[in-house]
């Protein structure tokens, strides 16, 4: 490894795992029957299990890997307030009048903003200690044109998502970030951040308190429809259930090919630096916000909960690559924003899959075969999948007061697409060229 950036104690593992016993799943036996079998032990599945348990049902959660092994404990810990949903706004097509478009946006962004409220209420109710803070987010403008684009949307964002957002011109940018890299940007106050590993462990404990059985290293196999429910073959034997929930998101595979072909798994890569001087750390992000930018090749970054490290993530590549490939790319991106971190070494590097839908919207519903699902976080999974998982639990209990706008929507795919994202390297190269062109033109 390149000794100039890799710490001698470097680990190709998530920094968050330092605080949690990854792989030490609670001991449990596979029961012969459950009310609901949930395939996927991440944020979606556990939130669903908590709601089911609170409502008196008996869920069983299965995960092929140790519980939380996927993106639930590999993300950056940002908690969106609904400001990222519907990047493509493809659902506005076909709506003729401005009022129709606005009502569609109101429904989409209003429901998306519920994700933050759900997480805050859940953390308080279940007593989850995960360093949650509503510190807000600064989104840097890659070019002056991007700044103008943000400014044109900010009133809609505030009205429909209650974002408490404002524009910050370049001359005031250092109020948010110790860098001149961007052309100003947008401050969104209604967002938060947390420790993903501790949040996931808190969800596990809450699900168990409410009666859920959690089984890691238990792979789901054939799904057979019965007269009164389902039979699920697993690596530990069969289990029968009234309903089955698929909560696999970016790790959706051959078990459910119809869902797999509707998702684009995209790798997101993150590095953690060694501990840096506390005064330097405080100067980098004066208000301790999470940071992101308007580039097509997205970056997102923040300080660790103890404010001693920089956690820097982004699309170093759109597919899975080794730390030897991703870490130097992310380290270089970090130094472009903060040259003052030159010489700072990397202690952790890791990757995880997020899942995009072709319409850039989250989805919840029932397949033609009768399987329930909630997936397609589109990069905002901490808030969105927690919320959709809980809403799905309420729906299965028959206790929903309303139907979320993401429930039952058309879940598009493309002809001949099977779920293998062969096009991503080309998309990545095209996005990099467009980012370069925009910056050059600026």
CATH class categorisation: Alpha Beta
Number of beta strands: 19
Beta-strand percentage? 15-25%
- The gyration radius over C-alpha positions equals 21 Å
CATH superfamily: FAD/NAD(P)-binding domain
Treating each run of at least 4 consecutive H or I residues as one helix, how many helices?
9
Give the H and E element order.
Answer: EEHEEHEHEEEHEEEEHEHEEEHEEEHH
Per the CATH scheme, the topology name is FAD/NAD(P)-binding domain
Read across the widest sheet, the strand sequence of neighbours is 1-17-13-16-15-14-5-7-6
Helix/strand-derived category reads alpha/beta
Runs in which pLDDT lies below 50 for 5 or more consecutive residues are: none
Domain unit count? 1
Biggest β-sheet: count, sense, barrel?
9 strands, mixed
Mean pLDDT: 93
> Whole-Å distance between the termini?
36 Å
How much helicity do the residues have?
Answer: 25-40%
User: Rough shape?
Assistant: globular
- Name of the CATH architecture: 3-Layer(bba) Sandwich
Biased composition (Gly residues): 75-91
Domain FAD dependent oxidoreductase: 35-392
Pfam families: DAO (PF01266)
Region (Disordered): 73-97
Structure description:
With 442 residues, this protein is of the alpha/beta class. It has one domain (6-441): FAD/NAD(P)-binding domain (3-Layer(bba) Sandwich). Helices cover 30% and strands 24% of the residues. The protein is built from nine helices and 19 strands. The protein has helices at 43-54, 98-126, 144-161, 196-209, 257-260, 278-284, 323-337, 381-397, 424-441; strands spanning 6-11, 33-39, 59-62, 78-79, 137-140, 165-168, 185-188, 192-193, 213-215, 220-226, 229-234, 237-246, 263-273, 290-293, 299-303, 310-314, 346-357, 363-366, 372-375. It has a nine-stranded mixed β-sheet with strand order 1-17-13-16-15-14-5-7-6, with helices on both faces. A hairpin with a 6-residue loop joins strand 15 (299-303) and strand 16. Helix 1 packs parallel to helix 4 (196-209) and helix 2 (98-126) packs across helix 8. The longest helix has 29 residues, at 98-126. It is globular, with a radius of gyration of 21 Å. The chain starts with 5 loop residues before the first strand and ends with a helix. The model has no long low-confidence stretch (mean pLDDT 93). Keywords: Oxidoreductase. GO terms for molecular function: oxidoreductase activity. Residues 35-392 form the FAD dependent oxidoreductase domain. This is FAD-binding oxidoreductase. Residues 75-91 have a biased composition (Gly residues).
């Amino acid at each position: 490894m390149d000794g100039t950036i890799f710490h001698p104690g470097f680990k190709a593992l998530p920094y968050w795992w330092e605080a949690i016993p990854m792989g030490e799943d609670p001991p449990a036996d596979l029961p012969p029957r459950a009310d609901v079998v949930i395939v996927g032990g991440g944020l979606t599945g556990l939130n669903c299990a908590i709601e089911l348990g609170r409502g008196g049902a008996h869920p069983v959660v299965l995960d092929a890997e140790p519980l939380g092994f996927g993106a639930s404990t590999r993300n950056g810990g940002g908690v969106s307030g609904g400001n990222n949903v519907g990047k493509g706004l493809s659902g506005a097509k076909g709506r003729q009048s401005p009022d129709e478009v606005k009502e569609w946006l109101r429904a989409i962004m209003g429901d998306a903003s519920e994700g933050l409220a759900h997480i805050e209420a859940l953390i308080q109710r279940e007593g989850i200690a995960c360093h949650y803070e509503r510190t807000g987010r600064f989104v840097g403008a890659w070019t002056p044109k991007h700044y103008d684009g943000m400014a044109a949307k900010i009133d809609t964002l505030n009205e429909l998502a209650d974002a408490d957002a404002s524009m910050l011109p370049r001359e005031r940018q250092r109020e948010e970030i110790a860098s001149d890299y961007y052309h100003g940007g947008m401050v969104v106050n209604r967002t938060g951040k947390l420790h993903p590993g501790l949040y996931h462990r808190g969800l596990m404990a809450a699900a168990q308190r409410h009666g859920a059985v959690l089984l890691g290293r238990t792979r789901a196999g054939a799904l057979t429809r019965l007269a009164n429910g389902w039979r699920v073959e697993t690596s530990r034997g069969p289990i029968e259930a009234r309903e089955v929930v698929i909560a696999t998101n970016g790790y959706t595979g051959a078990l459910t090919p119809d869902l797999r072909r509707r998702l684009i798994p995209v790798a997101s890569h993150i590095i953690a630096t060694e501990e840096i001087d506390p005064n330097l750390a405080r100067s980098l992000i004066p208000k301790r916000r999470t940071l992101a930018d308007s580039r097509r090749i997205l970056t997102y970054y923040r300080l660790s909960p103890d404010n001693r490290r920089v956690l820097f993530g982004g699309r170093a590549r759109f597919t899975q690559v080794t730390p030897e490939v991703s870490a130097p790319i992310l380290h270089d991106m970090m130094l472009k924003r903060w040259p003052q971190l030159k010489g700072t070494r990397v202690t952790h590097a890791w990757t995880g899959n997020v899942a995009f839908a072709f319409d850039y919207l989250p989805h919840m519903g029932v397949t033609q075969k009768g399987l329930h699902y909630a997936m397609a976080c589109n990069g905002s999974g901490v808030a969105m999948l927690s919320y959709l998982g809980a809403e799905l639990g309420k729906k299965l209990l028959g206790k929903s007061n309303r139907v979320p706008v993401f429930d039952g929507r058309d879940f598009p795919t493309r002809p001949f697409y099977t779920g293998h994202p062969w096009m991503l390297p080309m998309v990545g190269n095209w996005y990099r060229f467009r980012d370069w062109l925009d910056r050059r033109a600026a």
